[in-house]
Amino acid sequence: MIHNRESLPETAAHATALACVEAGIEAAHPERVVRAALQFGGTTLEIGAESHDLSTYESVVVVGGGNAAAHVAAVLEDILGEALDGGIVVTDNPQPTTVVDVRPAAHPVPSQRGVESTEALLDRAASVGPETLVLAVVTGGGSACMVAPASAISLADLQATTNALLASGASIHEVNAVRKHLSENKGGQLARALAPARVSALVLSDVVGDDLDVVASGPLVADPTTYVDALDVLDSYDVTVPEPVRERLEAGAAGSIDETPGPDDPAFEGVTTHLVGTNTTALAAAREAASERGYETLVLSSRIRGEARDAALAHVAVAEEMVATGNPVTPPAVVLSGGETTVTVDGEGRGGPNQEFALAAALELPSEAVLGAVDTDGIDGNTDAAGALVDGCLVTDPGAARQALDDNDANTYLGERGALIETGPTGTNVNDLRVLVVESLD
User: Which end of the chain has fewer surrounding CB within 10 Å, N or C?
Assistant: First the structure.
């Protein structure tokens, strides 16, 4: 999985960190989580506690999008065989399929290809009826991949708004509150398009807390946010957006535009949702990999958030405490965390939250510690790296490292020192995974 593994350090601690990263990503892949969630025999499809007799439906189709959507579709084809009648998914990571149409998109900023692909998806959604079972695919990255600009909003408006929000330091919950109110399919609106079909959604979550209204901007669930909330995000983070965006949000806040559908909307009566893969899935597998190598383990949290540099210092503090006192777990030990940190971008360099996290940590890590930090989709920020692998000896020029952080150019600094982890698109997306290894103090 890690393309450049041979060029990375090979000490026991480094190897353990990489093994945990690989185990976590592999465990959250659709090939595993979708197969674990579904049982199919004869004409009966079971998804968790839900059961469908496929003989009672005129057709069974797949509809959805996100980073892992094509991988999910391929698994569904293999499980259901001739019982599946086709469908369409929109993704930035295409995979070969037989009957499901895989359409291209971009991530994390929407593209014209994504607009065209989403138009085709919505056309397919409009064609289903009450005798159709829709297996809906909702995965991380769906907000950017499934893009349908609202009236008077252009793709350029969405692109500028997305870039500004991603650079602002706003959380994904806040970012998606805005995106839902600039779209024709987010915030429960895809459920409206699919009604009155029976919809069973398979969700791979890439958000802290696994809030279903935030994953891919919640296309199939009720939206608890409002136009006022969206405006508050722009104002709180001083985000400058194109005039049509602010005009739409202000019109919505004034009641001139209908809100996204709430929990009482009849569109949701035929929708059930199944959370099949989460950050906890990855953390559990990483923990098992560490235990198998003889390390004590501790899962710090699956909900780490806030500025990447601040979260990094909290992890450094844990490593320092382990070295000094043996708390909260005695070395040799592995401490794991997940979640999603953010970066307020002031510079013009290249990087992502995991690379900034890793570089900020490397400045102060004790010599006994190794840290791996990756985005499980394999693409961290505006780079081709998944993240980085660092230790307490990586930074020999603190001034240059701090300058790289100031310039938001962690990618260049880490790349020059052979510390980047490169996986390419992994086929899944369950948020970030961090592995802190502290070796024995003997």
Answer: C
